[in-house]
Design brief:
By secondary structure, this protein is of the alpha/beta class. The protein has helices spanning about 10-15, 30-45, 45-50, 125-130, 155-175, 185-195, and strands at about 80-85, 90-95, 100-105, 135-140, 180-185, 205-209. The chain starts with 9 loop residues before the first helix and ends with a strand.
Amino acid sequence: MGRGTLRIEARDFARQLRTFRITGAGSIGRRIKAAAAFGRFFAGSLYDTYGGVLTRRSALDPQAEPRVRRELRAEAPEVHGLVADDDVALRLLRYRGGERGPVLLVHGLGMASSVFTLDTIETNLVEYLTEAGFDTWLLDSRVSIDLDVGGAGCTADDVALRDVPAAVAKVREVVGADGIDVVAHGFGALTVLMSLVEGLDGVRSLLSS
């Protein structure tokens, strides 16, 4: 038995897809079913997300079975209330992983700190850090979709000048640390960088994406 490897440019592959035809199926319904079966076999789980009208039932279908969630490999977090200096209620979640750190995770726009605890990948960032012994903190800033304030009437300046400094100060106070490490994503990275430019103290390292 032999095996070959096909290498093809993305634009050429897209051109090939336009030539895809189902023959000998006998009816439109059978052709659609055959196309869906091939797409799912060829693209695997990606097809259920990007396969258009041929995908399986989605979460928008009230009759669809709920997705089976895996158990997270992390202890339940401590919830720490946090209020910015303009009286906006924020939230900090602490996952105790060990004596390393502390490290603060800052989410992007249109999401929440739960982006760091997703169960749709084998190991999320909180699991990785806590298993490596880090005292891990997650900030839900005023743009978090999990908070009632939900970004209403705020700007990046509000997050950079109010939320980020408040979170850094709170983590340092609770832990008793002179400095903390920060991992920030997207809009969160932008606001942390803005905060540093404005003279934020207590951040010894920053990983931004």
